[in-house]
Design goal:
Elements lengths: L1 H16 L2 H12 E12 L2 E6 L2 E7 L11 E9 L2 E10 L3
Parallel strand pairs: 3-5
Antiparallel strand pairs: 1-2, 1-4, 2-3, 4-5
Length: 95
Amino acid sequence: MKKYLVIACLFIAAISLGGCESKNQNTLTSATVDKEGILTMKSGDVYLLSTDEGIVNITSNKVNLDEYLKKRIKVRGMFSGDTLYIDTTLIPEAQ
């Protein structure tokens, strides 16, 4: 009898935990933000993006942001602390 109880508990646990991964992916997608503004200056590896809401610290390991200094840009990334980490999407706006 104990054998069936253990198997039933494992089965219920497997079903309950089966949907956890998709919830985490939805959280990551919703954490992605878009910001638009003028890339005003660079301090070390961090750039300052002047937006309508204020100044945003941004950085990227994949995009060369030096090309966009003093230009209006639109970026997409995720925050870690007070810095927005840009992934691969960087769209220069028409000047």
